[in-house]
Amino acid sequence: MDPFEPQRAQPPEEQYANVLRQMFPGVTDEIVYDVINIVEEDDPAASYLAKMAKMQNLMSGYGAWGPLPATISEDMVDLYYKNLMEIFPDADPDFMLEFCREQPAAMLDLDAAVQRLVTEGYDRVELDPLLIWEQLKDALPDADPSYLKKEAVRLVSLPQQELHLFLQQAIETNDYPTMKEYLQNKKEQDDLAVYKQFDVDKFLEIFPNPDKEFNSPDRVNALNENSTKEEAEYALTFLYNNYGFVRKKYIDMVFKYRKANLVECCERLDKLGKNMRKARAQEQYKADIKNVALLQEIAYLKHRKLIKRVLKLRDEDYKLLREEARTYNLLQQCQCCFEEELIPEECYFCMKGCVFCKQCVKAGTENAIGDGDLRFPCFNNCDSEFSFQTLQMVLSNKTLEKLVQKIASEEAKKANIQGLETCPFCDFAMILPENEKIFKCINQDCLVESCRRCRHKSHVPLRCEEIEYDEDVRRRTYIENKMTEALTRTCHSCKKVFVKDNGCNKMTCQCGAMQCYLCGAAVDNYKHFGANSCALFSNDNEVNLQRVMSGAQDAKRELGDVEIKFDPSKDIQKFYNA
Description:
InterPro entries: BRcat_RBR_RNF216, IBR_dom, LUBAC_E3_Ligases, Rcat_RBR_RNF216, TRIAD_supradom
GO molecular function: transferase activity; zinc ion binding
Keywords: Metal-binding, Repeat, Transferase, Ubl conjugation pathway, Zinc, Zinc-finger
Radius of gyration: 39 Å
Protein name: RING-type domain-containing protein
Structural class: mainly alpha
Pathway: Protein modification; protein ubiquitination
Strand content: under 5%
């Protein structure tokens, strides 16, 4: 580690002291700290390099090395050089090194050097866009890397200030495509590629019985009233290319008659003979569609022969394996669903050797994972469990990845690692520095940025207490409703709700019923009001304020010991005293 590189983990005084001790080994710590304090008090806003230069000047006065040379030491040159090259990555290294060596110690100021280089210019080397791309990815780790790559190609030929300006604007506005959007789009493209760039094995993993799947009368048509014009054109282009010896007008008629049901269209077109001597030239698809159901259907119809051939070979191989297993008495029975005649390749075992079929192990472990379990006991109650190797053979990659992540997270929690933080939106955990306010989850299925304090999604630049969530709204509205109930009165006869504007406390409803505004009792005349009963006249503001505050206190008691982030009763007195 470079001793002249400031270490963030240490207080600033210790950073300076460590460097000065190495440069001036004969000076006591008392003098070292005196010099540091003098420089810090003299110009606390100065840069690290400027402060270090002043400290060198002061330390040289104690006779450790004699007078300070006209130029800075090689150690300081290295530090100076590193800082400037980070700011000007397109600078010629030889030019920058010579520039640093020529700087007088008295002018050792990074900000001034930057200004001079910007104003006077510097020798450059042709930058590789990949270097700019790496720099952008380091500065904006949550940005779409493909977007950053395009920007790197654009910025490489521009002045260095453009790169700094781009980063500054991106950090301030957060207005750029995100990594989450990039990964979602990539996943979508990968999913579509299974059907566009056909892979029969992957296809059969998704559809083990494709004939049954795509010929089912219950299957929803991939093209319906919500489909786009581009999707219909894509389907027709497939039919034109797949039936090159059939005239387009016949294909169009069948497509319309069969209501754009491709399976039925192909069944009808298969029965038509060739009505053209020469096949039509293959047409290019005009649009790049994302209708997964349509792409699945086209992949099945386009590769039916290959799919049937592969399924036939698999079936023949399976029959041979089964006969061989029967010959050698190797057939087993699943101890969960009791399916008989499992060949050895279909058997999965707990750690004590209980036999199960793949479907049972897969379904059972997936249910256990859904319940949050991390151990998977044998279904035969033999006090054993399934090994991780067995789970690898039966679970999908996505399910297995989530399980591994959850296991790792739980193990990390048990280890009680200092600074370990868990994402509130998934099981991902990582160590963060104390001063980091935002948890930026790097789990590709999550990628949520959350506040470490309130455990909600990041709300920068607002503080936690300035954000109202669903539970906060429920509490606030509950108190508001109780305050409203306390403020209003209800007619004892017709149940109409009312509030008094002014006047005496004998209220007469539109229905003719009379009651006391203070206690709500039914009255016939003024006899209810007097010295030993309710007052005929009162200060309405005081009465309403007292009832509203009482309603708010009752509501808070009913809510219990919970945080009321936005208290509607706060400062209510100002309203009534206005």
